[in-house]
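User: Good morning. I'm curious how 5-hydroxymethyl-3,4-dihydroxypiperidine would be positioned relative to this chain. Could you predict the structure with it bound?
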Amino acid sequence: MTSSNSNDRTRHFPPEFLWGAATASYQIEGSATADGRGPSIWDTFSHTPGAVWNGDNGDVACDHYHRMNEDLDLMADLGIGAYRFSVAWPRIIPDGTGAVNQAGLDFYRRLVDGLRDRGIEPTLTLYHWDLPQPLEDRGGWTVRSTAEAYAHYVEVVARALGDDVERWITLNEPWCSSWLGYGSGHHAPGIHDIGMAAAANHHLLLAHGLAMPILRETVAGAKVGITLNLSDHRPGSDDPLDVAAARRADGNLNRLFLDPIFHGHYPEDMLAHYSSYSPGFSVVREGDLELISRPLDFLGVNYYSPATVVDESRATQARTAGYIVATGDQFPDLRLRGLETPGRDRTAMDWEIQAAGLTALLVRIRDEYTTVPIYITENGAAFDDYVDPNGHVLDFNRVSYLQEHISAVHDAIDAGVNVQGYFVWSLLDNFEWAFGYSRRFGIVWVDFPTGARLPKESFRWYREAIASNTVQYARSPGGH
Ligand code: IFM
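Assistant: Good morning! Here's the predicted structure, ligand included:
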């Protein structure tokens, strides 16, 4: 795969490598009340004063609901082999458990047909955070019945679209749904309760476990996976306190999901850590972990940034060592502080750019968890893009970010990790959750007042990478 000429930076990907782009329903569709769609927790949250930057919401978003064909044509022009989208549960079963809304299914049927017409494989995410509000009113992910309702919803979607969709992702980033939704309150439904977050963590994984056999029984030849947001956590020093802090961060973000899925149990240190919170992991019932740990066909990995942390008691030492120390932490129970290395590039999300963390993460997954195929189901960056006087968006910083991270994926493949595809986040600028429309992740600029689309320089760059199946190798500066 690596070029034989050592001066040549061209890296070739395997011939069957899958290039894609990703989006999510609430972030792009708009039409929040069209054709029978019910309210989701994100409709409620985004309409709550103070919850989202600038009072933004997903009522219109990118108006993808009406501009689907234009977006499909953009995908065809980009040359992607697969498109990752999510189905909005409140379009399909508006009250979460009751009647099925055929108009909602019809919308996704048109999308899947449009993809197939253009030779693009659908990759369908069943849950990307838009829980029907009526289910939240009955306890949301903190109660078991939501996992059971999800299983029913999955069966409905699988029956309707299973003839034309092979690759299914049960959940997107259950860490965000549980810990940001119920722990820090940064995301919908905006609850601040660590014990509820832990319960949500388990019920989301249970939902995944319940969905897998349904997908396999309903869809012949289904490829079933889950997408996790994972990161590479490093201690700011060798001090045992900092090493332990990095281990706690890793436990919360990575191991609370990877361990039950691949090893069939929650990590002991995390169970001990959360043992005093109610209901916490006391909601786990006999047999749940067998369901959760059933074999997957692939793992979806979303990676954006690594993290360096110290124990909260060592903030002064970290400052003396030259770091900038974050002032607070959204999870006080973890007792740690995030560090920023001065001079290191960051995105508009203030996330450090360090592609080597992606290679390290992928190698670790292979070494500690699984050799099933991995897809990078999201990777990308927000920057302060603008349309220049010539009508172009010259987002060379995003081009560098993508080039470095796709190179890091190639490094992982060279190291023997079974990475089979890469989906850029995101096809379109969109509703970036609590940041509203203030953060642009797209390789296509969206003019939100009019909905007009404008491919950015990164779109052209990615199109060339896809067409040639290569990347010119690049590393993030300052990386290890
Ligand atoms: O926009 C989100 C996406 O919905 C989930 N993964 C992270 C992205 C960037 O924050």
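The mean pLDDT is 97. DSSP finds 16 helices and 16 strands in the chain.
Let me know if you'd like a different ligand tried.
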